[in-house]
Amino acid sequence: MERSLRIGVVGAGLGGTTAAGLLQRAGFNVVLYDQMPAFSRLGAGIQLGPNVMKIMRRLGIEESMAAVANEPQYWCSRNATDGAYLSRIPLNADRARYQAPYITIHRGEAHQIMLGAVDTANVQFGKCLADLHAHDKGVRLSFMDGTSDEVDILIGADGLNSCVRAKLLGPEDPLFTGWIGHRGMIKASKLAGLDVGECVKWWSSDRHMMTYFLDRKKEEFYFVTGEPAESWPLGVSWVPSTHAEMHKSFAGYDPLVRAYIDAAENITKWPLYTRKPLPVWHRGHVVLLGDACHPMKPHMAQGAAMAIEDAAMLVRCMTEIETNDPNTCFEAYRHHRMGRASRVQEVSNANTWLRTNEDPSWVYGYDVYGVDLHA
Ligand code: FAD
């Protein structure tokens, strides 16, 4: 596609930021809009596998991210009640196989480094998309602050409650999965003397707790859980929670898990949502990626990874396929992404990933830059 095109990306989350950074590097005129008044450092952790780090390499930030992150050698699954090991799967212990690191990192830190790969002149905060009008030549955007803009191509990377998606396909509430997740941060000094694994998921029959370090110095530890819940109030994105509520939910778990709960600060509780598979990923000059397109339960730690892979594949299709027809580019993008994103969505929703020893190379060994676009 012509590099002179003006590309609008709505949503400066992990997927939208990746798309903007890669488009900028490819020479497009790109604008990244987000509803937030300024960058906000979400206090949570995130795992980014080699499949993502190969894309961070293209953004020129693989090393700066790895320099602050932890690089766990193994993923371990443990039985909640007696601590028995259910699996022990090499991550960085098998680095040569994946040709990139597996990192666990503070999500805000990762996001900030990624935003640093986008020219600040191309980023507009405080721009909440309210409406769009797609026409033959491009898309007119209207924002809540009363301003408007005109772009040739619009990328909807605006997450679970995507406005772009709603304008493209009609409004539809996301589906509450019947699961919630607790998140908690722990100063690692509070766990001194305990046998804390680097990247461990604790499992019982109907819930789990994932634990890992957030930094290379191993000063911050983190947990995120998955637990059944009957309902969640519509429109509430998270609520504060308590040690008592978590102890009740994880009664009977190993003393180590109970020590994590005791040591946690700022415990929060989040709903887990999904959506039915989308019939279309693009229309005219508008295309979707990430959670706007295929949200999933986070039990495989690959939701952001799929958004980032989508962004990389979309930019490949826009730069490597010789056409100026958006439909040709976007259809190639959908063709190369739908199978993989759907498979990951399915496994993630089933919550079986790495519970027992299995080969994770179809996920971590994937290189979006190795895909033959003409296949
Ligand atoms: P988002 O990150 O949701 O970004 C959307 C952006 O759009 C936001 O910045 C928002 O402000 C903006 N926006 C929304 N509406 C508008 C509008 N109208 N106008 C302008 N801007 C707008 N994934 C992993 O890969 N690894 C993990 O370890 C992991 N752990 C997780 C743990 C939990 C508890 C949860 C809930 C999810 C986890 N995920 C993980 C999944 C991951 O968070 C999401 O899949 C990922 O954030 C999706 O990225 P995105 O860029 O598509 O959307």
UniProtKB/TrEMBL annotation:
Keywords: Monooxygenase, Oxidoreductase
Alphabetical list of InterPro entries matching this protein: FAD-bd, FAD-dep_Monooxygenase_BioMet, FAD/NAD-bd_sf
SUPFAM superfamilies in the record: FAD-linked reductases, C-terminal domain, FAD/NAD(P)-binding domain
Single Gene Ontology MF annotation: FAD binding
Ranges of residues in domain FAD-binding: 7-345
EC number of this enzyme: 1.14.13.114
Claim: Transcription regulation is one of the keywords in the record: no
Pfam assignment, any one: FAD_binding_3
Protein name, entry field: 6-hydroxynicotinate 3-monooxygenase
Organism phylogeny: Bacteria, Pseudomonadati, Pseudomonadota, Alphaproteobacteria, Acetobacterales
